[in-house]
Amino acid sequence: MKKSLWIAFTLLLLTLMLVGCGRDKEPAAEDLGEALPADALAVASERGLSPDDIRAALMTYTPSGILDEYIMFASGGHSGNVIAIGMPSMRILKNIAVFTPESWQGYGYGSTDSETVLNQGNVNGVEIRTGDTHHPALSETGGEYDGDWLFINDKASARIAVIDLRDYETKQIVKNPLLINNHGSTFVMPNTEYVLEESQYATPLGWEFAPISEYKEKYRGLMTAWKFDRETGRIDPELSFGIEIPPYWQDLCDAGKLVSEGWAFCNSFNTELATGGVEQGNPPFEAGVSQRDVDYLHIFNINKAAEVAATEGKYEVMNGMRVIRMATAVEEGILYLAPEPKSPHGADVTPDGKYLVVAGKLDPHVTIYGFDKIQKAIAAGNATPDEFGVPVLPFDEVMVAQVELGLGPLHTQFDGEGNAYTSLFLDSALTKWSLGGDDPAGYKLLEKTPVQYNVGHIAAAEGDTVSPDGKYLVALNKWAVDRFVSVGPLLPQNLQLLDISGDGPMKVIYDMPMGIGEPHYAQIIKADKIESWNTYPEVGWDPLTQSPSEFATKAGEESIVRDGNNVTVNMTAIRSHLTPEHVPLKQGDHVTWHITNLETAHDATHGFQLGGYNISLSIEPGETTSFEFDAVNSGTYTYYCTEFCSALHLEMMGYMFVEP
Ligand code: CUK
Ligand code: CUA
What we know:
Elements: H1 3-20, H2 29-35, H3 40-46, H4 51-60, E1 70-75, E2 81-87, E3 91-97, H5 112-120, E4 137-141, E5 144-154, E6 159-164, E7 169-175, E8 184-188, E9 194-198, E10 203-204, H6 215-218, E11 219-229, E12 234-245, E13 249-255, E14 263-269, H7 285-288, E15 294-301, H8 302-309, E16 316-318, E17 321-324, H9 326-331, E18 335-341, E19 345-349, E20 355-359, E21 365-370, H10 371-380, E22 384-385, E23 391-392, H11 395-398, E24 399-404, E25 409-414, E26 419-424, E27 429-434, E28 444-450, E29 455-461, E30 470-477, E31 493-499, E32 507-514, E33 522-526, E34 541-542, E35 547-548, E36 559-563, E37 566-574, E38 577-579, E39 582-586, E40 590-597, E41 606-610, E42 615-619, E43 624-630, E44 635-640, E45 653-659
Parallel strand pairs: 12-17, 37-40, 39-45
Antiparallel strand pairs: 1-2, 1-33, 2-3, 4-5, 5-6, 6-7, 8-9, 9-11, 10-11, 11-12, 13-14, 14-15, 15-18, 16-17, 19-20, 20-21, 21-24, 22-23, 25-26, 26-27, 27-28, 29-30, 30-31, 31-32, 34-35, 36-37, 37-38, 40-43, 41-42, 41-44, 44-45
Helix pairs in contact: 1-2, 1-4
The structure holds [4Cu:2S] cluster (CUK) and dinuclear copper ion.
């Protein structure tokens, strides 16, 4: 483009974009045109920005003090955490510690609250301090995100965590007593009655030892429905149950909604029952697992299962969990299968709940199933049992359409305009295609946009609700390669924000390197739906119980109480001192130490580290936090506040004397 033309176009674009900017006091378009700094175009030209770049910048640049419209909760993959990201600015707002210790938040470095939560996730006495988070799920009411709770799974050790969005902290970890890995989780029912968790790689239930030669007889999968209690804000294992399923490798699930509410759908692979063992001359897993042309979509009637799990005599209790055995599940009409093309990945229910989309992974198509057709096929009774006796519904009776999209289709999202979006891992591209209802001819590939590179999940604004917003789509790319300045051989993942508003082509408008684990999935919620606290409701608050703490200390009531070898420290923190300033101990003492942050001001957090004893705390305004330790080593130690909270922050310290 000629330079003069280019400048004219850019100026026009800038003016148009600024007209559309939603600020409280909007200057008239002409004023903005005139108000543009004279050097704006020079800057654009100097930096080599194209008109598209300028448009993208204007859509995403968020001036200081202006708040983001959406919050994206992205899994942190093998960082074992969740990242809250503002959209469209793509600014990281918070790293929420979940399965792994995190020093800044004082999570897993001594504080009783965090140790209590982390220890709930221990496996038979083994301390687990790592995790692999995949699928965050926001709590829903009536199929809409309600902004109250967030759930996330740990694939590595089959655990589920509950995060309270009032303070963005992890409140509970539940360990599945029958699984040692999961993947199809977390997914919630439209009113969050259950949080679903499904196994991935089959093992004997309870991961008892059994030789791989007994795979078909002893190895199994499990769908788990964890009962969530909104009153307590906790999963109640007593009211939760499992459904035994064949030892296929179940993959990814979605809960039904509206017409399909009460049902759940999961794709699977390895219906070949490959057991690996290349060292014994068997085909390697990656070949053994993808021999057949079809695998099985798993269809669960969760509501029916809940009834059966509440009926004495219809379930067994295994490792403390009620389990509906496979034969009962079949008998009671809880479990059905349907063929799905070659090693699929992802099952996604459309916003109206009428259809679900399964992506091929090794097949260039997505397959669309009709919930209505599934119900008719069940009623027609033409199913044939698989080798475990589970009815397989005829493909022709349940399939509505297939759309050829490209290589390696993985995950699908929706907008509110009747379109679907599917990621293509091998093509490194996103597709947009139309939903056609019951008319197979209505399903059409509309466009394809390259992303960089190897996209896994995609997340659309309010994408898993009954009313997605469209507008933005995020591609969670696995590879970054040349997108960023080199930071050594371990590269960040690349999150790309796309503008999908209007009828124009989808456009990448922002690249966000995510240098914290591999985000698999993310959910995006309107920011104003979350009513998070600025400070804890009362001074002396226990965040674990979300109620006043019995260990709260008031100003002037600080103390050190000795009872034999047990010493209790009741401390307060306020700008700019920790009281008491001297803590005298004797070697061998058992110390219980409570600190109350007396502050009521927004953002007046005090941190606390105790050198030599691996203690790190974050004490938010109003919070009371505790830790315990044995004073095994004598010496003179220092503790201090780790947040630069005032001009006299460096003075916010104290001595701990441990007399030999
Ligand atoms: S998975 Cu990672 S890209 Cu765990 Cu949902 Cu598909
Ligand atoms: Cu409190 Cu620094």
